[in-house]
Each structure stands twice: as structure tokens, then as C-alpha cells.
Amino acid sequence: NFSKEIKIVEVGPRDGLQNEKSFVETEDKLEFIRLLSETGLKTIEITSFVRPDKIPQMKDAADLYPKVLELTKGKGISTPCLVPNLKGLEVAKSLGVKEISMFTATSNTFNQKNINATIEEAHARQVQVAREASDAGMKLRGYLSTVFGCPYEKDIEDDAIIDGIKRLLDLGCYEISLGDTIGVANPVQVRRITKMIANEFDLNQMAMHFHDTEGMALANIYASLEEGVTVFDSSAAGLGGCPYAKGASGNVATDDVVNLLNKLGCDTGIDMDKLHAASEFITSKIGHQAPSKFFQAYKGR
Ligand code: HMG
Ligand code: MG
What we know:
45% of the residues lie in helices and 13% in strands. It is α/β, with parallel strands linked by helices. The protein is globular and about 50 Å long.
């Protein structure tokens, strides 16, 4: 009893790779993105314009992005990049980035550690970023982190979630991605929070962004589906984690999500063989096994 048309936002090249220890060469990132662009995915988050000393894996952003633009030309694929402040926006503008992701959290402490700003300070930055980005004709996507739990603050109040979403929508974001940043959500909680959000906002503008730290991401996706969510973020092979949330493991694997959705009779428009090829390629570059269960099961089929 849920929507059969589901959109996947692939975040592997950004959220997936940002926490991989060994640097993946720009050419390899490009090949990964090329393979992803052939799967049927319509949105692929590419990189972030942040401090290279903070997130070294993304230090080649300005080199990578123009190559991605060339690669995806005319394919109807959105290639958003994370932008934390005006300095990041300047770079994005100079490279012709068409869509940016802005990010904040429900937790002051997490925001401080992640972006060196309180919730209020982050908002003040984002007001400026959103205005300039919109003037430049960019599309805006918003992330709200720590919606289902925070490594530093115990309880996240419902009001902090509602306020965070409202602010991002008011800035002009067409979609808000609700982050289970450290992968601690459970299906009962997801149902409750999703219902609470649906009472205030249009659920069609919400995406779920689950990390699979406790192996609960697919259960959380199923619960979200039943509540009417139609957009999910995931990363090929299940790469990733969060550098400011100790112990947080990767995003839920696109491979696992597409497999679940296929079995539920949903349509994602994604070709599993091609997705597997992209996951296989990037796994060969990160120097360890892919966390995705379905990736392992699909090997050699
Ligand atoms: P800051 O230190 O507060 O910035 O950084 P500042 O304005 O005080 O400047 C200090 C220095 O940084 C200056 O250099 C600036 O030029 C430079 P100096 O003059 O000392 O040589 N600087 C920059 N350099 C490159 N790009 C920039 C930039 N801005 C300033 N954009 C900042 C603030 C946010 C930039 C920093 O804290 C940062 O880069 N943090 C990393 C944030 C990040 O990428 N986190 C991971 C992504 S979020 C996530 O994963 C969660 C998500 O997946 C959803 C979920 O799971 O919940 C989205
Ligand atoms: Mg994330």
C-alpha cells in the first residue's frame, strides 16, 4: 500500500567516499560517476566544496566537477554538490554547478563540530547562500542531519525537526533530506516522526537519508514507504560514514535499496546489472569489502 514510483538519490561519490580513508583518484571517481550515470539514476551527488583539511577526500572537487558536467551533458541527470557557505558557493558558481545541497542539523553540538556554526549561525549563512544561489539560477536541496538521533545531544525535540525543515523550505529548497546521520533510527520512531512531519509539510518534498550503522536502514525504509515517503538517499555498495559522528557506518547501499524496492514491486528505473558494475568498480578502488549484503549476493550471478 505505497507508491510504486520511487526516486533514489545516489550519494556515493560524496557521502560515500568522504569517509573513505585512502584517497580515490579523480579519474576513478569520474569512472564511478560515469558508471552510475548509465544505471538510470537521475540524481547523483558529486562532491562538496568544503575545507580540504576537514574532508581531504573531497579536495579534488574543483577538478572533478567540470569533468562530470561534460560527462553528464544532455543526459538529464542532476549533479548536486554540497555547499556550506559563501566561499563554497563562489567555487560552485565559477564551475557552473546547477544544483547545491545546503546542510544543517537539529543539534547545535553536531553543527558546531561539523560546520563550526550553531544552528542559528548556520541559518544566517544559508540565508545568504540561498539568495545568491537562487539569483544564479541554481536549484537548492536541503539536508537536515541528526533527525533521529545525535552522537552529542541526547534527545532531539520534535520542534527542532519542524523548525529545521521549515527554514530549509523557506530558503527555497525543493526537497529536504532527513538524515539519520549516525544510523540509530528504528522503524517505530521513523513512523512516528514521519507522521509528525506529514502533519506539517508535504511529504512529497521529503527524502529519507539512512545510514546503516545498526543494520536497521532497510527496515526504516520500509516503514517510511508505508508512511508515504517516495525519495531515498543511498550510496552504491554502501560506502561511507560521517567524519563527525564516531562509529557511524556507511549510507544504506543503493544495491540493497533497489533490491528491496524491486521485490516490493516498485519502480526505480535503475538497472541492477549496471548498478552492480558501478559498485564493483568503486569497491576495487577503496581497498576493502563493500558493506552491501546484496552486492555480495549478486556477485557472479
Ligand atoms: P570555518 O573554519 O568555520 O570557516 O569552516 P572560516 O570562514 O572561519 O574560514 C577558515 C578557513 O577555511 C579560511 O582559510 C577559509 O578560506 C577556509 P584560511 O584563510 O585560514 O587559509 N574556508 C574554506 N575552504 C574551502 N572551502 C570552503 C571554505 N570555507 C572556509 N567552503 C566549514 C566552515 C563549513 C567550511 C568547515 O567547517 C568545513 O569544511 N566542514 C566540513 C563539513 C563537511 O563536509 N561535513 C561532512 C558533510 S555533512 C554530512 O555528511 C551529513 C549528510 O550526509 C546528511 C546526514 O547524514 O545527516 C549531509
Ligand atoms: Mg550522510
